Each structure stands twice: as C-alpha cells, then as structure tokens.
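Input chain follows. Return structure tokens only.
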Amino acid sequence: MDYRAISAQGPALSQVNADALVVVLTPDLAHTGDAALDRLIDDAVKAQDFALKAGKTLYVHRPAGVKASRLVLSAAANAEPKAFKAAVAKGLAAVKDLGAAHTAVAAAQGLALTTAHAQALALAVADATYVFRHTKPSAPKAGALKKVSLLCAAAEQTAVKQGLAQGEALAHGVTLARELGNLPGNYCTPSHLAHEARQLAKTHKHIKVEVLERPALEKLKMGSFLSVTNGSAQPPKFIVLRYQGAAASHAPLVLVGKGITFDTGGISLKPGAGMDEMKYDMGGAASVLGTFRTIAELRPKVNLVGLIPTCENMPSGTATKPGDVVTSMSGQTIEVLNTDAEGRLILCDALTYAERFKPAAVVDIATLTGACVIALGHQHSGLFSTDDELAQALLGAGQQALDTAWRMPLDEEYGESLKSNFADLGNVGGREGGAITAAVFLSKFTQAYRWAHLDIAGSAWKSGAAKGGTGRPVGLLTQFILNQASAGAAAIQPLPAKPAKKVATKKVATKAVTQPAVKKVAAKSARRPAAGRA
C-alpha cells in the first residue's frame, strides 16, 4: 500500500484529487472548515440521513462542489486514536469494493492528528484489505485500493509520516501472524514455522535464526517439551531468532511463543465441536514471528531474542498418558494430569532455555487457557506478572498500540492446587482460576529473570462468521519493544545477580575418615538419584 501524508485543511479538502474521500467527524467536531463539505454535512444531519454517533456512515456519490467522486461521512465516538481507527474502518468498508484506487482520509476541524492516529489508519487499511486466499482459490481478488492519503495540517505532517511508516511496518507483522494462524494444520506444521523463520532471516539480514531438532532437544534434556510430541508423526522444532540492534553488552528482551500447530488434547481428547479452531494454538509463535517481521523494518536500538517451541499434540499409542511423570529441562518433575494442558509443558522448557541469554525481561505469549476467555472475553489479553515495572510497561504499550491487556492476580496461594504426590508439581490445578494456576505453573521456571505471561486465548482469533486470526498481540509486543529502545538507560534492567550461597564446611580430622569409609560414602552417593529428577 502506498501511504501519503498530504498537507490539506479547510477549503482545500473538497479540492483533493482522489477517487474517494472519507471524512471522520465526532459529536463535538462536526465541521471541516470547507464550505461545500460542511453544507453537505449540515443538510444530511438535518434530514436525518446521517447521525453523529459512533459507527454511523453516509455514502454520497458525486457530491456537488467536491472533486472526489465518492464521499463517505463516518462518525467516531471521540477524537482518540481508537475511535478514529474504527471510523476509518467503517469509511473504507463503504468504498473498498467500488473501484477507488486512491482514498483520502480527512479529520474534522479541531481533531489534531498524531503519530498514533496515523498508525491507527494504517492498521485499519490493512484490516480492511486483508483476504485469506492461500487455500481458497475462490476468495475475492484484492480490491482496487492502492493508495491512501491522510490529509493533515502542515505542522502535523512530520508526526503523520512517522505514524504511517510505523503503522505500515506493524501491519506487515500483524498480517504475517494472521496468515500463519489461518493456515490449516496440515499446512502450518512445526516444519512450516521453521521455514517461515528461515525466510524472515533470508529477507531481513538483521535477523538470525537457528532451528534445533529432536537430537539437540534430547541433549538439552527438554523432557517436558518432548513429552508433548510423543503422539505425533511431525518432528518438533525449537526455533531461536535473534535481532541485534544495540551493543552486545545490552541485555536482550526475550519473547517466547507457544507453537502448538494443532491441539487435539492428546489422550485427554477435546470435544469435536470447534476443534478445527485448534489450528490457532500456535498464535503465540505467530505473534513472535510477526513481531520480528515488524522490528526488522523499524530497526530499533534494542537486542531481541525469540524462542518458539513448536510441535503437535496428538493421541496415539506412543502419546504421553495422564499420570505420566516427565522431567523438565530445569530438573523439576511434572505429573501430567491432563494432556490437554500441553502448552505449559513446552513453554516451561523454553523458559528455562531463556536463562542463557541473561535477559532484561522475558515475555511468553500463549493461547494457553479457555479459562482466560471466560474471565476476560475477547477484548483484552490476560497479563500475569509479579514484576510491577514490567507489567506496567506492557499494559501501557497495549494502550498505545490499541492492543490491550488486563492484569490478572498471581498470588502464591494459587499454587497449592499444583501439588503432586508423585512429582514436584502437577501440570494442572482445579477448575477454579485455571488461567491463574497455569501462569503460576510457568512462574516456577522463571525465577532467574523478570517475567510476564500473556494469555491470548481470547484475543488471537475470532470465531463465528468472522472466523480468522487477529494478529494480536503483535501491536502490544512491538510497542513494548519500541518503548524500551527509546527509554535507553531508563529501560527495564535485568534482575541483580544473586550472591552465591556460602556452603558451611566442617573440619574433619584426617584420622577420623579412613580410605574405605570414603569409598563407602561415594558408593552411596552414586546410587542416590539426583535431586528433582525421575
């Protein structure tokens, strides 16, 4: 898409040379300063053809005194970027199938356009023009729209240009995440995600990628991750992405994305109704790839690592069974009480792996629990963290990016339900507070660094007639990374290193311990299993 920031206000609006003109108005800002447009607006409101209420639009063909042959009046709830985005989306919907190759968007007089408004417009355009056609040859062809201009004051032009550029890059990342999510499970396999990661690195020289195969995972002792893959013929992959935009001495931010490319529930089989939507269970992985796509274009001065454990969760004669005990990379043992709680089993090993990067902060992203959908619906992603600074940074980024999250509790008491008689912890608790106990489980593997968990089960895709991936939370993650890059020395810093524990030693008289006795003690130690391992 060709985005332009054009200086045009007041009387110049009606003379803009475009195929379509969308004018965004609010209940308090109902005029443009252009006589022809304002006369038309007043007449339409008086005749009750148009109302200044959010979501209302009016299409006018070949309006008198207006150079654009198509005009859409679109009402926004207020002047905020979120409302502006919604109004632009409604306006584009009215003209996108009418042959308009160039659409200009103007705001009411008094509605000051900012970087955020321009970014919102680019996202609205991307959403309006997106069509999934990878496995649907009969899908409608791309519309005629090729160019979008945002009309602004001369003093706003710099901010608008910046917002359009940032919005376009963000739209590329969101679209990639949507496309990957929408692919069926027989197309989007773990190997396909690895291929997409390699393509990113091939296209963008600032991204480096490494894909670890099963032998490497076995060597790393990722027993929890590998237990989920036992029932599938598809080989697991562990994708490591790196972007270095700052000095090597700068601690990186680490994103960990759940990549279950199809989730049947395993032996704890899911109900058949709606199971097709479990192709979206790699939404966390898709958001990490989408974020890297955007960051590669914007080139912020920050170091970033992406970790994607990816596999299928399938039932078979070799699948992990309820009651099995597995050993995670951290050495903690886990009783698999429900094989449908598999996301946390692959994430916990990835979170342990993240320690080697000595990160400033780690954020994992996962379509983890249906309980989060019950708690928050589809408006907000669930945010869990015991680190207030990190939580506030993520919440603020979500507000800026119009990709919001809501902070949930993470009290230690919720962990009581994860106790097991046969392992260090169980992989599920009770029915109550399921999204919270899942986050508590993950927290057991994140003690070495600042950590936050985003449960996107309610925000990664839509069901029903509008079924499809949303690309969330690429916007939130990107804004968080950009904010950290611009904060410089004020950015989130790694946790201080814990002082080494002093081990008390006893002085033993050499005569008191004979050589045979030492051998006997050593023999007993060799027979004793290592702590925390099955």
